[in-house]
Amino acid sequence: MQTIILLGTIFTIILILKNTTIVKKRFRRWKPILKPEHFSKISSAHDLLSNYYYKGGIQEIGQKFEEYCCWLFEQKGFSAKLVSVNSENACFSLYNMGDGGVDLVVHTDNVDAIVQCKAFGKNKEVNLSLIREFMHVMHMNGKKYGFYITTATFTQPALAEVNQYYHKRGYALYCVDKSLLTRIINGTGSFTDYHPKKWYKIYKKLKDSQLPL
Question: How far apart are CA 200 and CA 131, in angstroms?
Answer without folding.
Answer: 16
